[in-house]
Amino acid sequence: MRHTPTYVITDPAEVRRLIGEHPWATIVSPASSGMVASHYPVMLENRDDQISLVTHFGRPDDQLHELGQHEVLVIIQGPHGYISSSWYPEGDNIPTWNHATAHLYGTPEILSDEENFRVLSELVDHFEHHVEHPVSLSDDEAGARRAAKGTVGLRIVIDRFDARLKMSQNKKPAVREQIVHELSANGTYSSPELAAEMTRARPSETD
Question: At what angle do helices 141-148 and 113-128 cross, to 10 degrees?
């Protein structure tokens, strides 16, 4: 990503927050056949010293990516959206795109079948606990274990990351307030989630 110091995220806690809130990841590999990309949910492991992700690939994606043989790029895309220059004061005519994005790098570790099933169970429980009547793989463990044979579990310990939080920090407070107002409205480019992210980021901004 373009290196703009104003927008760079260096705090691992912020990256963890972004992953936790937006767990649908794009995973890119420089395979011998060329670049390969796949999309899977990821879940954070509880490690104080490192960012560690667990996920799974459906077969034969594991072979296409040549998992374990090289570093992969995991892309996390948070709130993003078009910022119209019509929301700026007269004379400022350059629109932009605000976004929260993280590029994470690490070499995947292939999980054992048993650990893969554990991770799959935890992943399902993680998302199901938000619904009124959650289900669990333990409801039909035998069937779930048969389905799990079509997957390959992964752990990706992140060696380094490159992340950006671009939320119009280069604009005056009144302009940012106007942008938040427009994003919160019912217009073509409304995005309450992006408006909330801009509002959340405001206390750490300097003008």
Answer: 120
Helix and strand totals (H; E) in the chain: 6, 10
**Helix orientation angle between 173-184 and 192-201, rounded to the nearest 10 degrees:** 150
Mean pLDDT for 113-137 is 96
Element spanning 121, H or E:
helix 113-128
* Whole-angstrom distance, CA of residue 62 vs CA of residue 58: 7
pTM score = 0.93
Q: List Cβ neighbours of 34 (8 Å cut-off, separation of 6 or more).
A: none
The position carrying tokens 């700026």 is: 88
The 8-class DSSP code of residue 111 comes to P
Beta bridge partners of 76: 25, 102
